[in-house]
Amino acid sequence: RDFFDLDHGVRLGRFSPGDRDLIETVRQKLAVPGNEIVDMSGEKLQTLRRQVDSELAPVLRAQDIATFDIDRAFAVAAQVAARLQTPDRD
Asked: What is the number of structural domains in the chain?
């Protein structure tokens, strides 16, 4: 669901992968005990592709799942992950 939310927000122009507030929100979420860095491997992408129809589609409206693109969402997540690796500059 996080990948959908990320894709949805970027697609609607609510934020971009480089937005400072988004990066800070992700940092805070990852700081919560039990949350780990997201696996950005090719194997993870393959797993996510398989889960779209079986796990994500049943909890979304048809119009939302129709506009969702897991590859685009994964690319956005990769951009966010890259930003997390760079020091914050003021």
From this structure: 1
